[in-house]
Amino acid sequence: SFDRIKWLADRGLATPAHLDVKRQDNEVAKRMVAQGQNQLAEIKVEYEAAQKGIRLTDDHNTNTSVKSRAERLAFEIRDLESELRKREQLIYTLKVDLEREQERYGEAIRRLVTTPISGQIWEKITASGEFVKRGQPLLSVLDCSNAVVSASVSEATYNTLKVGDKATFRSSSDLTEYTGRIVKMHGLASPNTNLAIKPAVLRNEPFRVTVQAEEISHAEKCTVGQTGVVRFYPSDAPGVYAGLLYWLQYWVPMP
């Protein structure tokens, strides 16, 4: 401490320089103590005034602080307004890009499909939203202008017929009779066909005969799927049946 160094210096046991350093430290400590006591007294006064509902402030410092805070808030407001304008511009740009992409997407998901014939959609082969490849079948189109009649016949009747023989078909719906000729004949092993109703679904008899009638193709309404009666007129029936009218009646669907 300072007192101890002074006692040693008086007896020649400490240097004068060391004593000066301690004296300066002692003065500084006294000033700090005095400053602390003054601050404590001010705090006590403010505390007592606050208890009585009195607020003690330095008007100059208060005004300076308020002005500084107002300037800081004004700067923050300008900064936020600038950021808001940037974000609004970004939103506008993104909306324009979104509309452009939606138009491109709309064009990409729609394609104009041209069919080789004019007709009705008979079967949808693909589902909505399905990804399709080039050349993949999408749907089947019903060609009503090329309708034919499929009949199932017995083996005995089948053996009396040949391609080119005359035949008639009477529709069960409107009783209209159409004249045509046999264009195809086959047995149990049904060949591949491009008909809407496959001949293999006809279960009455094992043999199939296909009749084409021009009047059916020229009808105003599509007759595919109707049933009726088919009559055959063999051109060269054997034996005693020659010259007689051969006809067989079957309820058959039109493919």
Which helices and strands, and how do they pair?
Layout: H1 2-10, H2 16-51, H3 59-109, E1 120-124, E2 139-142, E3 148-153, H4 155-159, E4 166-171, E5 177-186, E6 207-212, H5 214-217, E7 227-233, E8 252-253
Antiparallel strand pairs: 1-2, 3-6, 4-5, 4-7, 5-6, 7-8
Helix pairs in contact: 1-2
Summarize the structure.
The protein is an alpha+beta fold and 255 residues long. 41% of the residues lie in helices and 18% in strands. The longest helix is centred in the first third of the chain and has 51 residues.
Keywords:
255 residues, alpha+beta, 3 domains, two-stranded antiparallel ribbon, 5 helices, 8 strands, rod-shaped, disordered C terminus
